[in-house]
């Protein structure tokens, strides 16, 4: 694998997901996907794909795991409006079953990052036409129809993300990929949610051995390097010359 990476680097190929999708990027994606000026069928597709983006970002999921979420993965406790619980059936590191449950809280302070609102939009979109079983994220047809037998795939989400970033005029869109959600999901938990590294490992479902690879997500030379000159800034104790 190392030899393959070196060969790709020599050929000038840039690896995908080398840059994290920050909280501000998620805000932009939300606004782009929910754009009220879009055609109705495009906005309906925006509801589905942004919900998938958000769950990958909040839960530190690989995109292959996001598309396996089903209606049965979501547990809504009757009368409980503050949070929902999400459970995966299997994942790469737990082929026989995932014991971990994610409790995702409603986010009134930042509605664009609110998982409860994302699920409400999905429910309103599907209505009574979609039976509450099977895949959670379904494809939307070119006329805005819900394709009950066609769940969203990893390749579809990957192409959609590229298209969205290009639509947002990201000149560095090639540095992003679906793993960019997982990358900054880790950083977000450290920077904004007061998680320590062990909490991030538990939240993301990494074992002690696998947690070593988690550190790749905490740093990339492509993430925030333009802000490096500010790292040692301290206005209160700045020396006066």
Give a brief outline of the structure.
The chain has 241 residues and is mainly alpha-helical. It is built from 9 helices and 5 strands, in the order H-H-H-H-E-E-E-H-E-E-H-H-H-H.
Radius of gyration over all CA atoms, rounded:
19 Å
Mean pLDDT figure: 82
Query: How many separate structural domains?
Result: 1
Strand order, largest beta sheet: 1-2-3
The appropriate CATH architecture is Orthogonal Bundle
CATH topology: hpI Integrase, Chain A
Structural class: mainly alpha
CATH class: Mainly Alpha
Tell me the number of helical segments per DSSP (H or I, 4 or more residues long): 9
> Which sheet architecture does the biggest sheet show?
3 strands, antiparallel
β content, as a range?
Answer: 5-15%
Which spans of ≥5 residues are poorly predicted at pLDDT below 50? 1-15, 236-241
Characterization of this structure:
- The chain is mainly alpha-helical and 241 residues long.
- It has a single domain (12-225), classed as Intergrase catalytic core (hpI Integrase, Chain A, Orthogonal Bundle), CATH 1.10.443.10.
- Helices cover 41% and strands 9% of the residues.
- It is built from 9 helices and 5 strands, in the order ααααβββαββαααα.
- Strands 1-2-3 form a 3-stranded antiparallel beta sheet, with no helix packed on it. A two-stranded antiparallel ribbon has the order 4-5.
- Helix 2 packs antiparallel against helix 3 (40-59), helix 3 packs across helix 7 (179-191) and helix 7 packs across helix 9 (211-218).
- The longest helix has 20 residues, at 40-59.
- It is globular, with a radius of gyration of 19 Å.
- The chain starts with a helix and ends in a 23-residue tail after the last helix.
- Mean pLDDT is 82; it is low at 1-15 and 236-241.
